[in-house]
Write a structure and sequence with these properties.
Length: 276
């Protein structure tokens, strides 16, 4: 019975992570909220769990954006020999994704442990959810005209720095990058695509850094089924959540996520004050 409950709990955690990963409300922040107020603990290795659910979200992104990824890679490499406008645009898009990855990669390698130790608190999550909400509210009515071909190195660096800030729990990675992109006058479709294609290298990098922790996970064999269920739950939830969020972005309804953050953030802090 204990093993069955553990498997169900990990399935629910995977679904929860997958649901909140693509949308701009911070999946890491919401997992902290669930663990604190619902008493939900992650048995086994947290690094293994994080790798599995994030890898599942990555696979969902790869599936949804597979056509864009194939085109970018093919045209990007083709630009080395055939220098037309389409190939140049996709080559530069790939280059900007690489540039935008650098800030979070550097900050993550140097300071991720310190960030987790100092800022992984409920009060921090409550406050940073409000910050996320403010960012979403400020760009809620923006309708930029800039498309893929008008991106620049400056855009990439600003979006990359926004992704680095999102290493703080409660700051949504998708929210921060989309806010930064739209604040630069980039249209919703390009901002969304750049944000989630940017998730690919940062997720792969995190996976590489977590390999040693997983190899040394003493609970790997006994936690195999719960881990698998968490992975599958995150994969399915991430896929449908991202597809839904793409529709929300197309309709320009980011204000609802801002309102959600404005409500949940203060409630989290208030609940913590009451309980302490």
């Amino acid at each position: 019975m204990d093993q069955l409950w553990l498997t169900i709990k990990f399935l629910l955690l995977g679904l929860f992570q997958g649901l909140t990963e693509p949308i701009p409300i911070s999946s890491s922040g919401h997992l902290l909220i669930a663990q604190y107020f619902l008493g939900v603990e992650i048995e086994g290795s947290k690094s293994t769990f994080a790798l599995l659910v994030n890898s599942a979200s990555l696979i969902a992104v790869l599936i949804i954006y597979r056509t864009d990824i194939r085109r970018l890679i093919a045209n990007g490499f083709m630009y080395l020999t055939v220098k037309n406008e389409e190939n140049k645009r996709d080559f530069l898009f790939l280059l900007y994704l690489i540039i935008a990855t650098i800030p979070a990669a550097i900050i993550g390698v140097l300071f991720q442990d310190a960030i987790d130790e100092l800022l992984s608190s409920i009060v921090t999550v409550g406050a940073t959810l409000v910050v996320t909400g403010i960012g979403l509210w400020l760009i809620r009515n923006m309708r930029g005209q800039r498309k893929d071909g008008s991106l620049s190195v400056k855009d990439a660096l600003i979006i990359g720095c926004a992704q680095a800030v999102a290493l703080i729990p409660g700051i949504s990675r998708s929210g921060a990058t989309i806010v930064a992109a739209m604040a630069r006058g980039i249209n919703q479709e390009t901002a969304l695509r750049f944000s989630f294609l940017l998730f690919i290298p940062i997720s792969l990098g995190g996976a590489v850094l977590s390999i040693s922790d997983i190899v040394n996970d003493s609970n790997l064999s006994q936690m195999a089924i719960p881990y698998i269920m968490a992975f599958l739950g995150s994969l399915v939830a991430s896929y449908f959540s991202l597809k839904w969020f793409m529709n929300v972005m197309a309709k320009g309804q980011l204000k609802y996520f801002a309102l959600y953050c404005f409500i949940v953030g203060p409630l989290v802090i208030l609940a913590w004050l009451v309980l302490n």
